[in-house]
Design a protein that fits this description.
With about 300 residues, the chain is an alpha+beta fold. The protein is globular and about 60 Å long. Bound molecules: flavin mononucleotide (FMN). Flavin mononucleotide binds next to strand 6, strand 8 and helix 4. This is Flavin reductase like domain-containing protein.
């Protein structure tokens, strides 16, 4: 049965019309579709009107915006950006909900890599898989990765609970060929219910951790938790609202057709990474440019 509810999203004045319905911030009725996805009622229609996914898109290199740029030239827009004004936003200004900060940050700090994290429960009986885009590599010696989990250790997401209790997990990088399956793992399944079956993705063994890696993933990193830090809300002092987990990579798994001979470079054409943009938008990386480093 289709259930319907209304979600009141705040309207931003400067959102371009060509963005998806979530980013347009329009008040829209939502429905639970036949399967597990909560979508705007007219989203299926919008989706159907869009061009097909271009499976043949190759990674192309273009020139930089200003190939003639020289030291001191500044921006390449002829000074246009200097004519624009900025709005100052205090994240805690009166009446501003924290959801506005969430939406601003996830739509403005883009694209973000997505760590599809695989973990196992301490008793080894259950497995878990979920995506996290507050994630990044922050060092290579040792290889260090950070993941931000919304919530607290007390009311931990399953991934956090497992990372905390077992001290290990696997970061799988999301590629175009399993973006739908990876997205499906974000379902809030009760602890112990595995997102592996929901997604249809396959497990492959790791060497130094008990959790499985995603076999479909071009690049996976198994690792051990080296640090866990809880943060407190400013809006509700005393309430823990975020946990930073630092993971040290102990093994890299790269699909053999994606790595060069000396096993140092991952081929973007094979990796075809998916980045997270604002709302429910994902991005692919098919047009790139190169700039030599200054010396
Ligand atoms: C693309 C994407 C990125 C996400 N990034 C984060 C994130 O960085 N931090 C977070 O706490 N939740 C994030 N989520 C939501 C979690 O995936 C979601 O809460 C999930 O149910 C957690 O699963 P778990 O309880 O099995 O760990 C993201 C969801 C999606 C679809």
């Amino acid at each position: 049965m289709v259930k319907s509810l209304t979600v009141n999203l705040s309207r931003s004045q400067r959102i371009p019309e060509n963005l998806g319905p979530y980013q347009q911030g329009i008040r829209r009725p939502f429905s639970h579709s036949r399967n597990m996805f909560r979508i705007a009622q007219d989203f299926e229609k919008i989706q159907a009107s869009r061009p097909e996914f271009n499976h043949d898109a190759q990674v192309t290199y273009t020139k930089p915006p200003n190939p003639e740029w020289k030291q001191g030239d500044g921006a390449n827009d002829g000074g246009e950006s200097l004519k624009k004004n900025h709005l100052e936003i205090d994240p805690y200004e009166k009446g501003r909900p924290s959801s506005s900060n969430y939406k601003l940050l996830i739509s403005g700090i883009v694209p973000r890599p997505i760590a599809l994290i695989s973990t196992r429960s301490k008793d080894g009986k259950t497995t878990n898989l979920a995506p996290f885009s507050y994630s990044q590599v922050i060092n290579h010696d040792p290889p260090l990765f950070v993941v931000g989990l919304v919530g607290s250790l007390e009311k931990a997401k399953d991934t956090l609970r497992n990372l905390h209790e077992t001290g290990e997990g696997v970061i799988n990088i999301i590629s175009e060929h399993f973006v739908e399956a990876a997205n499906a793992t974000s379902i809030n399944a009760p602890y112990g219910i595995s997102e592996w079956e929901i997604s249809g993705l396959h497990q492959a063994p790791c060497s130094t951790v008990q959790a499985a890696r995603v076999k479909e993933s071009i690049l996976s990193i198994e690792g051990k938790v080296v640090e866990l830090k809880e943060f407190e809300s400013r809006a509700s002092p005393g309430k823990k609202t975020g946990v930073l987990v630092t993971i040290e990579g102990t093994r890299f798994w790269v699909r053999e057709d994606a790595i060069n001979e000396d096993r140092s470079i991952v081929d973007l054409e094979v990796l075809r990474p998916i980045g997270r943009l604002g709302g429910i938008t994902y991005g692919r990386t098919t047009e790139v440019l190169e700039l030599p480093r200054p010396f």
